[in-house]
Amino acid sequence: MKFKITLECFGNYRTLPINYQYPLSAAIYKIIDQADKEYAEFLHREGYGKGYKFFSFSDLKAKFRIHGDRMILQFPIVSFFINFHLPEASQHFIKGLFQFRKISIADKNSKVDFEVKNIEALENPLKTAKPNEIIEANFKPQSPIVCGIKNDKKNYAFLEPGEEQFNESLIYNWRQKIEANYDVETADNALLISEIYFYGNNAARSRLITIKAGTPAKTKIRGFLNFKLRLRAEKRFVEILQNCGAGLYNAQGMGFLQPINTNAL
Q: What is the top-level taxon of the source organism (predicted)?
């Protein structure tokens, strides 16, 4: 379930941290947590069950200029896309959670206060296929996809698209998401195919992001943009990746997928 959220900043201060992903994630979690009891009761009443906090969101769409580690907004309106792995029937409830909310994006050095001016539900491009139908769908990341393998120190060695292990890591993580939404057997038996394509001769573009910047818990992660993914799987499994995001750190704004086209097989 995909939404476009439009924000308008109030006040004269328009300087965002360039590593805004974690603060934005925290603001989204705060909105969900404030409505958590009512949200959980709604889901229980409708019989939806697991996974209601699975979400992913895109980079901010805004006019800005970079100054050091800051983004200076040139216009008070910004927007982003957010996907929730929930049935369409919960659309109005989700819209109600975000409507007219205040969102602050801040770190120790900058803070911008926004109000949600609009939340628009967008059509699911996979809706015509049946849940168990094998489909092929093309996506491009609208935020960096992070894939990695943990080393002996339990830290991630980040991988680049084109490396064989990048695709293996992506599919492994995809199975984990299926297991979390279904069960181990379903995840183990799922047919999952992922292929990577680049734009002509252009290489994937790397981005280094700092999570929890300016704190003792800060973590640097590396993700990649500027390539396409072709996925082949049952519709219900493709939807999990579309809604929950590809790779790691999805709730921190990584791995948001924008569909290009879809074909039933």
A: Bacteria
- The pTM score is 0.89
Find where tokens 């699911």 sit: 124
Are the beta carbons of 3 and 94 closer than 8 angstroms? yes
In whole angstroms, what is the distance from residue 146 CA to residue 206 CA? Answer: 10
Q: Cβ(55)–Cβ(82) under 8 Å?
A: yes
Write down how long the chain is.
265
Nearest alpha-carbon partner for 26 in 215, 153, 181: 215
Q: Which residue has the higher pLDDT, 1 or 62?
A: 62
Q: Please compute the mean of the pLDDT values over residues 112-139 and round it to a whole number.
A: 94
Cα–Cα distance, 172 to 42 (Å, whole number): 32
Tokens of 146: 């992070």
Instruction: For domain 2-122, give its CATH number from 1.10.1740.10, 1.10.10.10, 3.30.70.1890, 3.40.30.10.
Output: 3.30.70.1890
Instruction: Give the 3-state secondary structure of residue 104.
Output: strand
Amino acid present at 229: L
According to DSSP, the residues that pair with 257 across neighbouring strands are 141
Each domain of the chain, given as residue ranges in start order, spans: 2-122, 134-264
